[in-house]
Design a protein that fits this description.
Pfam families: ADK (PF00406). About 55% of the residues lie in helices and about 15% in strands. The chain is an alpha/beta fold and about 190 residues long. Strands 2-3-1-4-5 form a five-stranded parallel β-sheet. The structure holds adenosine monophosphate (AMP). Adenosine monophosphate binds near residues 32, 58, 89 and 145.
């Protein structure tokens, strides 16, 4: 059983790294952002509810997000653990996840904190906007997502630090290099 989170500012490379790390550890990488985007694309009721919120770079209400994660964690592939990418993002979500873990009779094992300079991540997001055309990758929304991160999500690092769960990794460098750093840091905590 391996229950992990990956946390860091938008553009730090969480999504890319989450998929690679999860594969190595044989657990699913679960990205709430990906789930929302898939629902928007398929025009589901949830997608219609959250589309404008994502476009503004704001957070989807905790009630919706928490239910989605609770459902996802009940799926078969998550029975041996999970790597959550982009969740939790608020103190309320941390509390909810604590409840889910308690119900499962489990706990978190580590929180990978991807560290990246703000100017660097903004540049990366603008590049991704040009390449992939994500509708929330325009300059104004990027700025808002950064503000939301600083205000709502960055403080969560303190919560996890007080639980001694933080594994800090430099997110700047080649993708392979960063993956290697994360795997080594996790292995240092007995997670492999
Ligand atoms: P991401 O792909 O993780 O950058 O997420 C893209 C967008 O989805 C965010 O800007 C939010 O609008 C929404 N979102 C993703 N995860 C969450 C979450 N845990 N809580 C609230 N909103 C979220």
């Amino acid at each position: 059983m391996t229950n992990l989170l990956i946390i860091g500012p938008p553009g730090a490379g969480k999504g890319t790294q989450a998929v690679r790390i999860a594969e190595r550890l044989s657990i699913p990488a679960i990205s709430t952002g990906d789930i929302f985007r898939a629902n928007i694309k398929e025009q589901t009721p949830l997608g219609q509810q959250v589309s404008a919120i994502l476009d503004r770079g704001e957070l989807v209400p905790d009630s919706l997000t928490n239910d989605l994660v609770a459902d996802r964690l009940q799926q078969e592939d998550a029975k041996n653990g999970y790597l959550l990418d982009g969740y939790p993002r608020t103190a309320g979500q941390v509390e909810f996840l604590d409840g889910v873990n308690a119900e499962r009779g489990e706990k978190l094992h580590a929180v990978v904190r991807l560290v990246a300079d703000k100017n660097e991540v903004v540049a990366r997001l603008l590049k991704r906007a040009a390449e992939q055309g994500r509708s929330d990758d325009n300059e104004e929304t990027i700025r808002n997502r950064m503000d939301v991160y600083d205000r709502e999500t960055a403080p969560l690092v303190e919560i996890f630090a007080s639980r001694e769960l933080i594994v800090e990794v430099d997110g700047i460098g080649e993708v392979d290099e960063v993956t290697q750093r994360i795997l080594e840091a996790l292995s240092g905590r007995g997670i492999q």
